[in-house]
Amino acid sequence: MKAELLHNLIDLVEEFNNNSTSGTMEDFVVWLSGKYFESENSEGHQEQLDLMLAFQISMLNKSIKKQTKEVISESPLSSLDGYSFLLHLEHADSFRKMELIEMHNLEAPTGIEVIKRLLSKGLIEEFNDAEDKRAKRVKMTKDGKRELERLKPLVDEKFKNFSKALSLNDKLSLVATMNKLIRS
Fold it and tell me: Is residue 127 part of a domain?
């Protein structure tokens, strides 16, 4: 480590101590992030932060898929999307195919493939929409309900392990923040 960097860090710690009653590392990191990213010359830093955020969200997505893959691979489902489709169908009588696909923010061809796989495994069934003759609806079958009941505790355990490093407040805050990003 270069001595100049160490001197700058010591100056920042002193500035933090003069302006804060807290002495925790977490509070220092938050303070430092605010100072670093909210400065007048932070445009380049903001772009780096946006890139880092997008990259980390992508990495979290990959991580959760990887962790649940072993559970999903031992079932008729072939993806976490299929599991999620069943979860949503558990809470409704049925959905139009495109409603279910849009709910999961999937491209139509990808969502249709998930639905085809679920249909071929007998986990869902399709029928005509009474209101729109062009649309098809899907609902979960008894086999789909049984499979979801079997998988749910296993997947829930993976989700629990995935987020175990976070406190309840961290989880609530992260969910609220992610919802902002999803709605933007």
Answer: yes
